[in-house]
Specification:
By secondary structure, the protein is an alpha+beta fold. The chain folds into two domains: 175 residues, 2-Layer Sandwich (Fructose-1,6-Bisphosphatase, Chain A, domain 1); 142 residues, D-Maltodextrin-Binding Protein, domain 2. The protein has ten helices and 14 strands. Strands 1, 2, 3, 4, 11, 12, 13 and 14 form an eight-stranded mixed β-sheet that branches. A six-stranded mixed β-sheet has the order 7-6-8-5-9-10, with helices on both faces. The longest helix has 19 residues. The protein binds 1,6-di-O-phosphono-beta-D-fructofuranose (FBP). The site of 1,6-di-O-phosphono-beta-D-fructofuranose (FBP) has 14 residues, from strand 3, helix 4, helix 7 and strand 8. 1,6-di-O-phosphono-beta-D-fructofuranose binds next to strand 3, helix 4, helix 7 and strand 8.
Length: 338
C-alpha cells in the first residue's frame, strides 16, 4: 500500500477531529459524532482510493453516511474515467469519533480513527461485543484469551522480565467486568479503569510512555478490528472473541459470514494483509494531544503507521483556517460566533 495514502488518511482523521474538537465538553455526544462523521465522509472525497467501508457507522438502513458497504474515495469516479491506473481498492474501517462520551465531557482519549487494508482483509465484524486482550511489541505470541487473566498476566510479566505487580492493565469500567477486575486485583497487577475508548487503550499498550501494559475486557467488536490494525502495524498482539447480546446480533453476524461463534480470532485474522492505521486526538490523551484552537486556527496531533514498514509517525499540524481551501467540512470547524 502506498506511502502517500497514509498521509491522505491523516488528513481525513484530522478533518473529523477538528470538527468533533469544536464540540468538546458540550454534553452532546450524538452531535459531536454527527459532525465527525460528516467531516470524515466529506474529506474522503479528495482521497484517491476506491474504498469500501467494512467497519463504519452501521448498516445502510441505520446510517446515512459511512455505512457498511458504502464506496468512498475519489478513485471510484476516476476508475470510471479513461486515464491512468485505477486507484487502489481498499477496505476501510472507520470510527470518526471513538469515545463520544469522552468528547462530550472533555475527558481524555477521544480520537478520530481510520484503518485501511488491501481489499477484503478486515474481519467484517458485526456491531456486537468482543472479548479482547491486547499487548504491545515484546509480548507477541505470549497471550491466550482462552486462558485466565491470571495466566495471561504471568505470561506478560515473564515476557517483560518483570513481576505481575509491575504491570498496569487497562479495563473499561463496566459492571460486566467486576469478576475480571477482582481477579486482576488478586494477581497484584495495577489497574487503570477508563470510562470509554478501548481503541486508544489498546494502542496505549504499544508505547512505554503511557505506562499501560495490557488491555483486557469486553468492548465493541468494530473497535476490536480498528485496534487490531494498529497492533499489526507496531508488532503488538491481540486476540478477540465475539460476544452476542441476543439472537438478533448472532443472526446479523451469520449474515456477515461468521460461522464459528466460539472462534478466538488471532491478530492476523482480525486485520490481514498490508494495513495502515491513522488516528488524530480529539481530546488530550495518553498518546495524542487533542485539538487545540487558537485565533484563526487549530493544532492537531496524529499518529500514522503502516504494517509494511513498521514506521510509526507522529504528526503535529497547525491549521490556519483563512488559508485552508474552503472544504465544505470546514463549516463544522470555523467559529460560529464572532
Ligand atoms: P462510542 O465512541 O461509540 O461512544 O464507543 C465508546 C466505547 O467505549 C468503545 O471504546 C468501546 O469499545 C465500547 O464503547 C464499549 O461499549 P459499551 O459502552 O456498550 O460498554
Amino acid at each position: 500500500m502506498e506511502r502517500n495514502l497514509a498521509m491522505e488518511m491523516v488528513r481525513v482523521t484530522e478533518a473529523a477531529a477538528l470538527a468533533a474538537g469544536r464540540m468538546m465538553g458540550k454534553g452532546d455526544r450524538k452531535g459531536a459524532d454527527q459532525v465527525a462523521v460528516d467531516a470524515m465522509r466529506r474529506a474522503f472525497d479528495s482521497v484517491d482510493v476506491r474504498g469500501t467501508v467494512v467497519i463504519g457507522e452501521g448498516e445502510r438502513d441505520e446510517a446515512p453516511m459511512l455505512y457498511i458497504g458504502e464506496q468512498v474515495g475519489a478513485g471510484w469516479r476516476r476508475a470510471e474515467g479513461v486515464h491512468g491506473d485505477p486507484a487502489p481498492r481498499v477496505d476501510i474501517a472507520v470510527d470518526p469519533l471513538e469515545g463520544t462520551n469522552l468528547c462530550a465531557t472533555g475527558a481524555p482519549d477521544s480520537i478520530a480513527v481510520i484503518a485501511v487494508a488491501d481489499d477484503g482483509q478486515f474481519l467484517n465484524a458485526p456491531d456486537t461485543y468482543m472479548k479482547k486482550i491486547a499487548v504491545g511489541p515484546g509480548c507477541k505470541g505470549v497471550i491466550d484469551l482462552r486462558k485466565s487473566p491470571t495466566w495471561n498476566l504471568q505470561a506478560v510479566a515473564a515476557a517483560k522480565r518483570c513481576n505481575v505487580e509491575d504491570l498496569t492493565v487497562i479495563i473499561l469500567e463496566r459492571d460486566r467486568h467486576q469478576e475480571l477486575i477482582a481477579e486482576v486485583r488478586a494477581t497484584g497487577a495495577r489497574i487503570r479503569l477508563i470510562g470509554d475508548g478501548d481503541v486508544a487503550a489498546a494502542i496505549a499498550t504499544t508505547n512505554d510512555k503511557t505506562g499501560i501494559d495490557v488491555l483486557m475486557g469486553t468492548g465493541g467488536a468494530p473497535e476490536g478490528v480498528l485496534a487490531a490494525a494498529a497492533l499489526r502495524c507496531v508488532g503488538g498482539d491481540m486476540q478477540g472473541l465475539l460476544q452476542y447480546r441476543n439472537d438478533d446480533e448472532r443472526h446479523r453476524a451469520e449474515r456477515m459470514g461468521i460461522k464459528d461463534h466460539d472462534r478466538v480470532y488471532q491478530l492476523e485474522e482480525l486485520a490481514q494483509g498490508q494495513v495502515m492505521f491513522a488516528a488524530t486526538g480529539v481530546t488530550d490523551g495518553s498518546l495524542l494531544r487533542g485539538v487545540h484552537f487558537f485565533g484563526g486556527g487549530a493544532t492537531t496531533h496524529s499518529v500514522v503507521m503502516r504494517s509494511k514498514s513498521g514506521t510509526i509517525r507522529f504528526i503535529e499540524a497547525e491549521h490556519h483556517f483563512d488559508r485552508k481551501p474552503d472544504y465544505d467540512w470546514m463549516t463544522w470547524v470555523r467559529p460560529q460566533k464572532t
